[in-house]
Amino acid sequence: MTAEFSTEIPAELSSLRKSIDNIDAALVHLLAERFKTTQQVGRLKARSGMPPSDPVREAAQLKRLRTLATEADLDPAFAEKFLSFILAEVIQHHEELAASEG
């Protein structure tokens, strides 16, 4: 016995998917802006001879993000994983910039 499914997508589902698509587009644009700014930071650090990574700042940012996530009713562990992934990319970019400047 096979269940029959309607191929018609309910209007509410379609509307929710459009909202998700818009949010995803906004996230991509925000990440692009963030990386443009962190590239500037990386170039400044490289010119100044500063290390690519700042563990004190990173720890403060993670703590801040966990608090923001909790206030926004988002799983703070997920928010931390997300920011940790971004920070790892930023540090890699900064290391590459330091190598090319040095």
Written account of the structure:
The protein is mostly helical and about 100 residues long. The chain has a domain at about 50-100: Chorismate mutase (Chorismate Mutase Domain, subunit A, Up-down Bundle), CATH 1.20.59. It is about 80% helix and about 0% strand. It contains three helices and no strands. It has helices at about 10-50, 55-70, 75-100. Helix 2 (about 55-70) packs antiparallel against helix 3 (about 75-100). The longest helix is centred in the first third of the chain and has 38 residues, at about 10-50. The radius of gyration is 20 Å and the shape is elongated. The model has no long low-confidence stretch (mean pLDDT about 90).
CATH fold label of the domain at 51-102: Chorismate Mutase Domain, subunit A
Q: Give helix % range.
A: over 70%
Describe the global form.
elongated
Please give the radius of gyration in angstroms: 20 Å
Summarize the helix and strand pattern as letters: HHH
Question: Based on helices, strands and strand pairing, what is the structural class?
Answer: mainly alpha
Quick one: how many beta strands? 0
CATH uppermost class of the domain at 51-102: Mainly Alpha
Give the low-pLDDT segments. Answer: none
Strand fraction equals under 5%
CATH architecture of the domain at 51-102: Up-down Bundle
The helix tally amounts to: 3
Mean pLDDT: 92
The CATH homologous superfamily of the domain at 51-102 corresponds to Chorismate mutase
CA-to-CA gap between the ends? 69 Å
Tell me about the largest β-sheet: none
